[in-house]
Amino acid sequence: MKRFAGFALDISNQCLWQNGSQIALPPKPFAVLRYLIENPGRLITHDELLDALWPDTYVQPQVLRTYVLELRKLLGDDARQPRFIQSLPKRGYCFVAPVSDGAHSANGAHGNEKNAALVGRTRELELLDSLFQLAKDGRRQMVFLTGDAGIGKTALLDAFCKNFDPSLPVAIARGQCVQGVAHREEYYPVMEALAGLCGSEDGEQICAILARLAPAWLGALGRQIPSSSTVRGPGELSAALEEIAVSRPLVLIFEDLHWADESTLALISALARRRASACILLIAAVNAQHPAIEHPLRVLKQDLGMRSQCTEIVLEPLGKSAVRELLAATLAQPAVPVDLDAFVHRHSEGNPMFALALVKHLIAQEFLIRKNSDSPWELSAPVDKLEPAVPDELAQMIELDVQALVPADQRLLEAASLFTVAFPAWGVAAALDEDPATIEESCNTLARRLFFVRRAGFDELPGGAPSAFYVFGHGLYREVLYQRQAPARRAERHNRIAQRLATLFAGREAHVAREMAAHYEAAGNWSSAVSALQTAAQQASGRQSHRVAEELLRDALRISENLAPHERAAIERVIGPVLAAGGAYPAVRP
Questions:
Q1: What is the pTM (predicted TM-score) of this model?
Q2: Looking at domain 2-101, does it have CATH number 1.10.10.10?
Q3: For 391-414, what is each residue's pLDDT tens digit?
Q4: CATH no., domain 121-314
Q5: Cβ atoms 151, 317 nearer than 8 A
Q6: What's the 3-state SS for 196-261?
Q7: What distance, in Å, lies between the first and last C-alpha atoms of the chain?
Q8: Which phi and psi (to 5°) does residue 505 adopt?
């Protein structure tokens, strides 16, 4: 499956899909489109195309022109302003739209794409359907579909569009907001949606409505119009869309609205606020925590919400049972290997895209294998032996998010990643050797701006001073930030955190000895880690928690293996008798 701008070329079934509707293509036009799509972004000469499609037959080049004209009509493309097929006179053609592959897994791991996309989203799908029914009755609906990157917004929209009864007259138009385009081209997703409408089966009727009510919009699509107006007004297009929706309900979908330009937001605002009856459902998919969301979109969303003129559907992470269902669909087998669902759910935290990337990673690392194409997938090692590393494609995606930040923010987040669960502002300040109050202000700012950092509450430090703490929205972000630091820099920062703990809890170090030991061990400061664990064990023994003391001392022995033989022997002489006594110290100093 090759996807481009609301279309999907189905290689297996030799047909074209547009927003869930199948478009039949004769064999030769399909072959021309397939060859162009499989070679995007480069010149395909007439000779190359003829040789590829008619290798043993002489065919006039004029035949290609006929097929390309037919394809342009189906795609709603215009030779003067091509969005898909660009003609290069006397040379050939170039497919200029971005092309992506449909969902699949590495090494043949694939399942039912629709079922995999839909797991755990029955309630949201039903809610979208109920909102469509209201729109169909003339009560226009504005919907914000929100969720983190990879949570399944596009998959839900694809499923929603595919669920329409083919016999039901409904117009579906989708537009994609693209990063960086908003500053160069107004109404980019709107024009993409309009081009799709004009290229549909009812395209001639829709073009006639646009020519009458919004001629400048039709002209911007490259169509010849009698009017000389070039001003695209939101009111004109809103009126035209309302009339288009008279004969059939209209579903408008704008994806990644956090990348939208202000003109597109103004159009959405105008369309949502108009009071006339209209069979229009407008769905805007948006990452509500993305740093690209600036004042205009926040204001629009809040204002429409206060006026009860929009509905928000929030996609939450999948639960463990939904992840199990996702894995079964992806691996195309009714049951998944034992404990695989728990492992994937724990490390993906219920994010579908992250879960599928982890499956690909396990296959690539040969932790998930099968004997042949007919055999079920199984684990090659117990779950506790699996490598929880961040898959390369996710690491690259996260790294791009991090690189978009200023160096000071990157440095702060790297220091925050030294904590495994929540990171306290004082701890980040200690790692960076900076003022705690200043660092807490910076953490607050990041939590407001970034979708992967959240404020979680307050701790009370010794002496009663409050200190805020925060969490990463996903553990994979923490892992990438941790690994991007030089080992020497990480060690220096871990040492500083442990030393700050000792200072904060002076006289009561035993209360935080385990935490101190973890930071010392991460820094490679083995002797300090062992000393901290011994202190914690002695305190546990004093509370008659002998089993805890024994666990701490065995951990201290494990770490002491990194020391010189004589140092390790000295530690064993102290710890050995306590372990022999079941974790009970012979005498615990006050």
A1: 0.66
A2: yes
A3: 777 788 788 888 888 999 999 999
A4: 3.40.50.300
A5: yes
A6: HHHCCCCHHHHHHHHHHHCHHHHHHCCCCCCCCCCCCCHHHHHHHHHHHHHHCCEEEEEECHHHCC
A7: 71
A8: -110, 35
